[in-house]
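My hope is that you will study the record closing this message with an eye to the fold:
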Amino acid sequence: MRRRPTARGWALAAAGVVALQTGIGLGSLDLVRMGVLLLAVPVTALVAVVLVDTVRGRRGLEVHRDVHPEPVHVGQEAEVRVDIRASDRAGRARLAGLRFSEQAAVELSGGRALRARVQRRADHATVRYPVRATQRGRWPLGPLVVTRTDTFGVVRSRTTLGSESQVAVWPAVVALPAPSDVLVGEPDRVALGARTPSTDDANLRDYREGDDLRRVHWTSSARRGTLLVRSDERAGMRPVSVLMDLPVRPSTTEWTISVAASMALAMLDSGHPVRLAGSGIAVGTATGAARAASPYVHARSGPEARAALLDLTLDLTPARTSTDGEAALLDAVRLLDTSHASGEIVLAVIGPLSAPGRAALAHVADTAQGWALVREDGRHATDAREAHHTATALRRSGWRVAQVTAGEDPVQCWLRLLGSAS
């Protein structure tokens, strides 16, 4: 709570001091009385404001904040609506004399003052204003700042009302062409147990990691002592792991996350169970491999599945050094090797790797179908040379590879990767 005189209050106080000193100097009782009266006005108003705030406090007013849409993607706008409601007569009296403003993180406001529209009624007020997300993450919004001026306009008090909210900002994503005809051709589908629709939808097969648990046939599983799933067309879709390493440079990190998220959503929309793997993926416990990959997300969950994937990107942060980043990537690669999801598809967005890193990633192609975008920043020749070495090593081990430059259009990068199969 901050209380201070307004410009009018300071002027009255200054005039009072001058009149008081002049009256004393000239021996004029009238000037002394006038000076005391002028000084008494702001002092009395300040005391009254203190007493009113102490007695009433924040009682009688309720604040509710709503953001739509929420979460929001980077580059998109959202509208914030703040409702302030008076629950009693004293609250309505306080509401009538309040002015409102909001606080927002610079990632939502762009460092500019928020321009709000205020609508008032007898028992409530509504504040609306737009925000524009400029960076992925979770950013604070609020609390509401309320300002009140006393009846004479000589003292202003300012305080906060309600609580702080958080706005989740997803990375910018783009719609990528459906990859199913390229990545999952008919020979692959037959070899991996995917079937065309038939009248007998109850054929069973052994459970594989990535299968939707809702496809488990519990009666047969209990009888056989092992998990069995119904092997209709959707149940046979190959699981997909989207692997990423996050560079130290922030702009390249955001581009990497945006491309990886777009690829993950494209595969999810095609019906594949999808998970994210790489540095910064923290789910479940906080130990080793549990932090290297998320659980599979299934397309049957609808919009909730897309939201679950994008939520995993909110708190991703790059490693402090490139060495730490590659170590985290290798942890994720080791998890892929031990997850027993044979025949899965691994989509990777990676930077230049050292020789041990290239060898570890090349080994993934022994049991999985690997597709990789090898990123270079394009800042110096060494970076481009190391990216070329990484791409060459992965191609020799059976990966499909496209070399890209950070900041390129994700759609063009994706099409180049798909075209590398021909």
Observations:
- Residues 185-202, 283-290 have pLDDT under 50 and may be disordered.
- The radius of gyration is 32 Å.
- The chain has four domains: 2-56, 61-170, 180-194+237-419, 198-235.
